[in-house]
Amino acid sequence: MTDTALVDAIICAASEAWRNDGEVLATGIGIVPRLAASLAKLTCNPDLMMTDSEAWMVAEPVPLGPRGDYVMRRESHMGFARIFDNVWGGKRHAMVGPTQMDRYGQANISMIGTDYRKPKVQMLGVRGFPGNSFNHANSFFIPNHGTKVFVAGEVDMVASVGYNPARLARGWRLDDIDIRLVLTNLCVMDFGGPDHQLQLRSLHAGVTLEQVQQATGFPLHVPASVPSTPAPTAEQLALLARLDPHGLRAGVFGA
Amino acid sequence: MNKLVGAGDVIAQLRDGMTIGIGGWGPRRKPMALVRELLRSPLRDLTVVAYGGADVGMLCAAGKVRKLIFAFVSLDFIPLEPYFRAARQSGALEVMEIDEGLLLLGLKAAAMRIPFIPTRTGLGTDVIKHNPDIRLVDSPYDERQWLAMPALPLDAALLHVDRADARGVCQVKGPDLYMDDVFARAASRTYVSCDELVEPQFFEQDEEARYVFWERAETTGVVHLPCGAHPSSCAPLYGFDVKHFREYTASAKEADGWAKYYERYIACSEVEYLQRVGGEAAVKKLPLPVF
């Protein structure tokens, strides 16, 4: 499978994350999540709200990259302070790309290493992960499925809460946390296994179950039947061509 | 009332060990000319509170920061800020690393003169583990524990705006305020640099007053510094300087990169700085970013 065919299939699978959400703010950080959210709004969930990735809510998804004479259809202001108001109210479903994830769905974009005071690798900082993870639904896209990302044990810095009962404050339940889809270059997963175990939902074309398990640093729940990730439809491909006129998605895997 | 001061006067009013808030977000509307003035000064041991970009990176590179209160430090289109990374990875930097929204709540609490704001944000994360000062509290109204985000009062805030008058009425016409209003309210003293200095009557025209987001009583001093946000953006007046940020980032890969950058762009007057980055007209032509 070519990189473009793979990324197109992942975007279409990722767009399913928002299908049953109704009227929430769909936020996709990065090329694949943003195209997935845009595709969802144009296909399975037209009620989604969306921003221009800067400061405005828009009536239709904004194409990626230089826009020529395209004029944004603004529908309201949506600056950062208001994004927080929206986050705290819970009417949002974000898809983001962590550097590490563990068996609980705890995610990290802050730092790598065992000494927090002196990181081996300093990354961005926790950004909005703590707030997103405890306030609304979250999905994840990880372009390089491997044991460095899906780590044994816990992530080096828990930026994003997951289904870890040991970390719940008094009075809270695991049901207060809402992790949806986890998409990688190998497969689609969710935390719907027994006791919120990460489980396989579909394998991308040409990928084996063994490959996925070997690339995951903890046991994965595998249901009785695991379908293949569907190939995009002609309609979806046409929409993607419109949403990504410069073909930026072809470079997602570093090609 | 006249609050006009020079950048040097602003820095002269700051002291070692102070907690300084810096407005803007990543590579956007940072008070970079004031930051450069701070870099030229002997001030040290600062606690810096910011949605960080090159402001934080430069202050780290110059050894000005004792403690950083932050959610991220990034140039966005260049995700990882090189001098902040180096400072963290050297183990020299004390940090309070919190969620973007927690930072806002801490500033709001300070602005509202209350000790904390309860929230669910941060529960279950290592933000609590690494910040023992952040406590969990029982609610008087339910059976749950909540995170009590402590107030983050600032000794001073440094901000950059599009326009201001000498009384301290400030205008931001860009699409986002980046919490600058809350920084102004959380600070004992707020110093604002402006691209354009206007007469008070300016705000009486049309809808101009609609773009004023805090009261002039929150503004302590106004510094007229055209292009004072460069190399960060000040939309809609100018975008961020991609070329300059790339040069700045590349400098971190050289052994004495910071010293060279400092020599060329900091160890000079702001007039010379503007010449060295191509002049005011060139800055005003920097395109706004497309996302």
UniProtKB/TrEMBL annotation, chain A:
<keyword id="KW-0808">Transferase</keyword>
<dbReference type="InterPro" id="IPR037171">
    <property type="entry name" value="NagB/RpiA_transferase-like"/>
</dbReference>
<dbReference type="GO" id="GO:0018730">
    <property type="term" value="F:glutaconate CoA-transferase activity"/>
</dbReference>
<protein>
    <submittedName>
        <fullName>Glutaconate CoA-transferase beta subunit</fullName>
        <ecNumber>2.8.3.12</ecNumber>
    </submittedName>
</protein>
<dbReference type="InterPro" id="IPR004165">
    <property type="entry name" value="CoA_trans_fam_I"/>
</dbReference>
From TrEMBL, chain B:
<keyword id="KW-0808">Transferase</keyword>
<dbReference type="InterPro" id="IPR037171">
    <property type="entry name" value="NagB/RpiA_transferase-like"/>
</dbReference>
<dbReference type="Pfam" id="PF01144">
    <property type="entry name" value="CoA_trans"/>
</dbReference>
<dbReference type="InterPro" id="IPR004165">
    <property type="entry name" value="CoA_trans_fam_I"/>
</dbReference>
<dbReference type="GO" id="GO:0018730">
    <property type="term" value="F:glutaconate CoA-transferase activity"/>
</dbReference>
<protein>
    <submittedName>
        <fullName>Glutaconate CoA-transferase alpha subunit</fullName>
        <ecNumber>2.8.3.12</ecNumber>
    </submittedName>
</protein>
